Amino acid sequence: MTRTVDLVIAGGGPAGISTALHVQAANPQISTLVLEKARYPREKICAGGIGARAFRWLDRLGVQVDCPMVKLDAVALRLGGQTIVTRMPNIGVVVRRVEFDHALAKAAIARGIEVRDGCGVAAIAIDDDGVRVTTDTGEELRAKAIVGADGVAGVVRKQAGFPAHKLRAQVVELDTESVAGDQPRDTVVFDFDAQDLAGYAWDFPTLVAGAPMVCRGAYVIRTLGPDDAKARLGTYLRARGLDPARYRHKQYAERGWEPGAEISMPRVLLVGEAAGIDIATGEGIGQAIEYGAVAGPYLARAFDRDVFRFSDWAATVAGHHLGRQLWIRHQCYKWFYGPKRPAVERVMPRLPSLFQVAIEDFAGVPLSKLALMRGAGQFLAAYAREKMRPDD
Ligand SMILES: Cc1cc2nc3c(=O)[nH]c(=O)nc-3n(C[C@H](O)[C@H](O)[C@H](O)COP(=O)(O)OP(=O)(O)OC[C@H]3O[C@@H](n4cnc5c(N)ncnc54)[C@H](O)[C@@H]3O)c2cc1C
User: Fold this and answer.
1) Which residues are paired to 87 by β-bridges?
2) Is 0.85 surpassed by the pTM of this model?
């Protein structure tokens, strides 16, 4: 027998659960079914760094995520042989995704949202009246619309026939003990010291089954040239006196947001990594939650009008903080990882106020106008100095 609901959300990660929570907040009458292919608690390969901005979205709904977290008060950048540390209280946290995603799903279930795990979307068919969804357990569903929140390898994108996406990153990570030279445990480290790498290595403090460990990894943007993230991580670890062969490597891909890319079609909306996240750093959890915050009221309006063309979804995202942040980071990524890298390395340490603004944005605190003005001044001064140098 075919079951009918208003909305099916494919994927019970942060984008899917956040969308379900925000739809419910905007209109509790909409019947939503979240289908999650895996069974909670399910692993997601991820370093688990989340800016406090993401929690502000959930706080507005009164949603608490009850799981272990390492609190962050500083970000360290290694660049051109220097380490630049910016301190700010409560920037964000590091979680284990196996715990965080389960806790977030439980918070949605506690509010009466139907989240079915161990039940994936196998196929979708779109017609004038709605969407027919076939699950991998053989069930048939009908809905007025479907949200693809099924991540980088999701089926909704493929089944609905969206064009292939270009911006891809390769990411590899593992957990080790602390070593001499590590930053304090309230600090995340982004290491950009390898000039020829379109990406970076990281050290994030983490808790593995309650034990303090460090998640280390390498993020490599494939679009800027093939590279081997695992080999890069090996080099990074050996420089810190760690033997890569001793640790279990976990590798996965990421999809970057592209300006102008299609992220909707009639009755189908993409959110989170299915749509695309920040290509410059690979940050995607906060963005996934924010996609949900934008999608919730957007979908509620569509149900109000009973119109599901979704033709202005990309423009709606672009007009929101989420879209502006993705756009700025997209502009930065080629500049930062491109041929002007030596100049970038000279300029960046002279821009502490811009770092502060970027971290305030991550933390979701209102941007300090003073830091913005100082940042703009520092940038112009550094740019003028660079102009007077011979080209690299
Ligand atoms: C190694 C690595 C490290 C990272 N570190 C960070 C970090 O520190 N901070 C950060 O912000 N981001 C990080 N990211 C990115 C982040 O993990 C993702 O951007 C984020 O998880 C996206 O959330 P999402 O909900 O869109 O997708 P996902 O978290 O991937 O969730 C998608 C869900 O859909 C389910 N699913 C898949 N197919 C189907 C189907 N057919 N039917 C139903 N369900 C389905 C999956 O099981 C999954 O639960 C990292 C990524 C990698 C690979």
Assistant:
1) 74
2) yes
